[in-house]
Automatic annotation (TrEMBL):
Biological function: Catalyzes the N-acylation of UDP-3-O-acylglucosamine using 3-hydroxyacyl-ACP as the acyl donor. Is involved in the biosynthesis of lipid A, a phosphorylated glycolipid that anchors the lipopolysaccharide to the outer membrane of the cell.
Alphabetized PROSITE patterns for the sequence: HEXAPEP_TRANSFERASES
Domain of life: Bacteria
Gene name of this polypeptide: lpxD
Sample GO molecular function, one term: UDP-3-O-[(3R)-3-hydroxyacyl]-glucosamine N-acyltransferase activity
Pfam families: Hexapep, LpxD
Cellular component, GO annotation: membrane
Xref: InterPro entries: Hexapep (IPR001451), Hexapep_transf_CS (IPR018357), LpxD (IPR007691), Trimer_LpxA-like_sf (IPR011004), UDP_GlcNAc_AcTrfase_non-rep (IPR020573)
Name of protein: UDP-3-O-acylglucosamine N-acyltransferase
Length: 345
């Protein structure tokens, strides 16, 4: 597919500086781009590369100018880049719209129009699958599950009984949703498994990465709200509620009964202790440990997670600890010598 720079500008709502009739056939990185391709600059530290790139055009933010280069100016070049890739380079997805002969579908299941079930899919009793759903090979859908329209579930994913999946949800391979949580009651020196009899609800437009686990509620539900994006290898425990348009990146662990607000970002490896509340618009840095409630709107770092500016000062102090230790030892010696002198007077 080829588009003129003017056609791309109209599609993105941007403005062309330079030759609007130049043909674009794809997107490449600024270091690798060559004639016929468009690239982008979203970080100010890469602006100097605009002069060096061989790309036919560059997506830039307002205020960036350069001589001899074709620019497509947009408010958000990174978002524009994603949209151009989707428009010009994403392969068209064509699904059979039928159930493979090897798929096992219970008689009580309700299957919508144009549903695709690839080989060895299992669909249990009283399941409802809406129109245009795609179930890749090896997907297991337990009893009483519901899957909304236009949802795509990738290979070997497991939906345990009673799980509800909304519309336009994407679940990547080997994820497990609605499994029993980790709960045991002490019984002397042994432990008694607490039955997990709640459900899991995934609302519309949620993405879930590969190898992610989301437990069902002990009682009640675990709920992931609309538009939230969850990376691969994330662990979400029982009765967690995650708000709308929140980003949960890889290797995050969220313990039971946590409430996370809207537009929150949990960076890679962050951990949240049980029964914690994290307010709207909070950002938590990578490998941080949240052990107390966080009010809305702050940025936190470290273990335990504290305000980022305070933690940065702590990091500086930590690096100076060896020298500080030696200074303290020297001071202790001097104090001892003074005490001896005072004692002898």
């Amino acid at each position: 597919m080829e588009k003129t720079l003017k056609e791309l500008a109209d599609y993105l709502g941007g403005e062309v500086i330079g030759d609007e009739n130049i043909k674009i056939k794809g997107v490449m990185t600024i270091d690798e781009a060559r004639e016929g391709y468009i690239t982008f600059v979203s970080n100010i530290k890469y602006i100097k590369k605009i002069e060096e790139t061989s790309a036919s055009a560059i997506l830039v933010s307002p205020g960036i100018t350069t001589k001899g280069k074709n620019l497509l100016v947009t408010k958000n070049p990174y978002l524009a880049f994603a949209k151009v890739v989707d428009l010009m380079m994403s392969p068209e997805k064509v699904y059979p719209g039928s159930l493979d002969n090897s798929a096992r579908v219970s008689d009580s299941a309700e299957i919508g129009a144009n549903v695709t079930a690839y080989p060895f899919v299992f669909i249990g009793e009283n399941v409802k699958v809406a129109d245009n759903v795609v179930l890749y090979p090896g997907v297991y859908v337990g009893d009483n599950c519901q899957i909304g329209k236009d949802t795509v579930i990738h290979p070997n994913t497991v939906l345990h009984r009673g799980t509800t999946i909304g519309e336009r949800v994407v679940v990547h391979s080997n994820s497990v949703i609605g499994c029993s949580g980790y709960g045991y009651a002490p019984d002397g020196k042994k432990y008694y498994k607490i039955p997990q009899v709640g459900v899991t609800v995934i609302e519309d437009d949620v993405d879930i990465g590969a190898n992610t686990t989301i437990n069902r509620g002990v009682l009640g539900e675990t709920r992931i709200k609309r538009g939230t994006k969850i990376d691969s290898e994330v662990m979400i425990a029982h009765n967690v509620e995650i708000g709308e348009d929140t980003l949960i990146t890889s290797q995050v662990g969220i313990a039971g009964s946590v409430e996370i607000g809207n537009n929150v970002i949990l960076a890679g490896g962050a951990g949240v202790a049980g029964h914690i509340k994290v307010g709207d618009n909070v950002q938590v840095g990578g490998w941080s440990g949240v052990i107390k409630d966080l009010p809305p709107g702050g940025t936190y770092l470290g273990t335990p997670a504290i305000e980022i500016e305070r933690m940065r000062k702590c990091f500086i102090i930590i690096q100076k600890l060896p020298e500080m230790k030696n200074t303290i030892k020297d001071l202790q010696k001097k104090i001892e010598q003074l005490e001896k002198r005072l004692g002898s007077d």
